[in-house]
Design goal:
Elements (H helix, E strand, L loop, with lengths): L3 E6 L9 H10 L4 E4 L3 E5 L7 E4 L3 E9 L2 H8 L7 H12 L9 E9 L4 E6 L8 E5 L2 E5 L2 H7 L8 H9 L14 E2 L4 E5 L7 E3 L14 H20 L5 E4 L4 H13 L5 E6 L16 H11 L6 E4 L7 H12 L11 H10 L4 E3 L2 H11 L3 H6 L3 H10 L4 H5 L5
Parallel strand pairs: 13-14, 13-16, 14-15
Antiparallel strand pairs: 1-3, 1-9, 2-3, 4-5, 5-6, 6-7, 7-11, 8-9, 8-10, 11-12
Helix pairs in contact: 2-3, 7-8
C-alpha cells in the first residue's frame, strides 16, 4: 500500500470527532508518522519506497514525483546531478514560491507543509496522473491518496453522490472532481490547494493546455521530422539515468513506436517489454481467437530486442473479482467506468518481477491518437468535403474498419 494522508486544522485545533479515525490509522502504520501537532497530522503509508520524502525543521514534503525536466531544473537551481527529485521540488518551491509548479514537467501528487507558519500546499500534475482526494469536516481538511483512508478517518459514512451514481449507470462522462461520495472531491489536474490558517478551501489552476504555434516548413518530411524530434525528447526525458526500463508492447502503432525508439536510446539488455496475450484458456473467450502475438514478435525482431526480456501476461493478477473490487473500493471508492486498472497486471509484473524504474505505455496514444484518428473522416462529412472523403476511402480501403474501431466517445 503506497501513498500518504493527513489532517489539517482550519481553526484552532483538530476536531475531536476525527481523533478515533486518526489513531486507528496511526496504529495501522506505526512507523510512518511524518509530523503531528494540535493543528496537523501527516503520515505516509507502509509500503512507500516509491514516495519522495524531505524533512527538516522548517519544511516537510512527501508524495510521488517524476521530473521530466530534471536537468533543466538542477541547472537553473545550481544543484548537483545526484540530487534527489524531492530536493529539487523543495528548492524550486523556495525559489519561485507558488509559481514553481509552472517550472515543473512530469507527473506528481504531493504535499508541502511549512512548520513555522502552519502553511499546507497540495499539488497535482498537469494531466492528473497521480491520485489525491480531500474533504472538509468540522473545520478540518482531510486528504489522502486513497478514498478509503478518508472514509476511515471520518466519524460517519460519507453521503453517497447520487448524481455521480446516475451518470455511472448511464455511462455519462463525469466531472473530474466528483467521486462516489458527495463530500469527497478529487483534486483536479493542473490545480493546487494552499492553506494558511484561513477557513476557505479552494483549488487554483496553475496550467492550461493551449495551442502552440507551428513553424511554416518546406514540406511534409520537415513536419514529420519536427514531430519525431518532440517524440524523441519526450521519451528521453522520462528515461534519464534509470537502469531498468519497461514498455508495454501491444503490437499496435503507439506502443510499438515507443518500444523501437527505446531500443535505440537505452541498452537493450536493460529494456523489458510486457504484453497481454491469449493462452489456451483465455482464447476461448475471444470472438476471433486471435491476439497480437505475431505483431509483437515482428516488433521484437525488427528492434533487435532481447527475447528473454519480453514478458507475456495471460491473467489478471487478482485472484478473483472480489479482490479486484476491494482494490477499486480502496482507491476510488467504487467501480467506475473510467477505471483503467486492467493495466495493473503489467505494471505489477514490471515493478515486482524485473524491478522496472519507469514504465512506458502506448495506451494514452490509443485514447488520443489512434482511436479518434480512426474516425477523422467525420470532419470531411461535417465540412462537406466529399472529394476528401472519396480520397480517404480509396487510401484506406473503405470505412468498415473505422466504424468497427472502438471509440472512447
Amino acid at each position: 500500500m503506497k501513498g500518504f494522508w493527513g489532517v489539517y486544522s482550519l481553526a484552532s485545533s483538530i476536531s475531536s470527532d476525527l481523533f478515533p479515525g486518526i489513531q486507528k490509522l496511526k496504529s495501522d502504520f506505526p512507523k510512518n508518522d511524518l509530523f503531528s501537532s494540535d493543528l496537523v497530522f501527516l503520515q505516509s503509508l507502509e509500503d512507500s519506497k516509491s514516495l519522495m520524502h524531505f524533512q527538516n525543521d522548517q519544511c516537510i514534503c512527501s508524495g510521488w514525483v517524476r521530473l521530466d525536466n530534471f536537468y533543466e531544473l538542477i541547472d537553473v537551481l545550481g544543484l548537483p546531478n545526484d540530487t534527489e527529485d524531492d530536493t529539487v521540488v523543495i528548492h524550486a518551491y523556495l525559489k519561485w514560491g507558488l509559481n514553481f509548479l509552472t517550472h515543473i514537467i512530469g507527473d506528481f501528487s504531493f504535499f508541502i507543509y511549512e512548520i513555522p507558519n502552519h502553511k499546507l500546499f497540495l499539488a497535482k500534475d498537469q494531466l492528473g496522473i497521480r491520485p489525491l482526494f480531500y474533504t472538509v469536516h468540522d473545520d478540518c481538511l482531510v486528504f489522502a491518496t486513497q478514498i478509503d483512508l478518508i472514509k476511515r478517518i471520518l466519524p460517519h459514512k460519507p453521503e453517497l453522490n447520487l448524481n455521480y451514481l446516475a451518470k455511472e449507470f448511464k455511462n455519462y462522462p463525469q466531472e473530474v472532481h466528483d467521486t462516489f461520495f458527495y463530500p469527497i472531491k478529487r483534486l483536479k489536474p493542473a490545480h493546487y490547494i494552499l492553506l494558511n490558517q484561513k477557513p476557505e478551501v479552494s483549488e487554483t489552476r496553475y496550467w492550461e493546455l493551449e495551442p502552440i504555434s507551428v513553424p511554416k516548413l518546406e514540406n511534409k518530411e520537415a513536419y514529420y521530422e519536427l514531430v519525431r524530434s518532440y517524440f524523441i525528447q519526450a521519451v528521453k526525458s522520462r528515461v534519464r539515468e534509470k537502469k531498468v526500463i519497461g514498455c508495454q508492447l501491444s503490437g499496435g502503432m503507439d506502443s510499438s513506436a515507443i518500444a523501437v525508439l527505446l531500443s535505440r536510446i537505452v541498452p537493450k539488455e536493460n529494456l523489458h517489454t510486457y504484453s497481454f496475450v491469449l493462452d489456451e484458456e483465455t482464447s476461448k473467450f475471444c470472438d476471433s481467437g486471435k491476439d497480437e502475438k505475431e505483431t509483437q514478435e515482428e516488433i521484437i525482431q525488427f528492434a533487435g530486442l532481447v527475447k528473454e526480456n519480453h514478458h507475456p501476461v495471460t491473467r489478471f493478477h487478482y485472484q478473483n473479482v472480489f479482490e479486484e473490487l476491494e482494490v477499486r473500493n480502496r482507491i476510488m471508492g467504487g467501480l467506475a467506468n473510467s477505471d483503467s486498472i486492467w493495466q495493473d497486471s503489467l505494471f505489477k509484473s514490471a515493478s515486482e518481477g524485473q524491478q522496472v524504474e519507469v514504465m512506458f505505455s502506448g495506451f494514452p496514444g490509443d485514447e488520443g491518437v489512434s482511436c479518434p484518428g480512426g474516425n477523422y473522416y467525420h470532419e470531411y462529412i461535417f465540412k462537406k468535403d466529399f472529394f476528401g472523403l472519396f480520397h480517404h476511402i480509396l487510401k484506406f480501403k473503405g470505412l468498415r474498419d473505422d466504424f468497427n474501431y472502438p471509440s472512447i466517445v
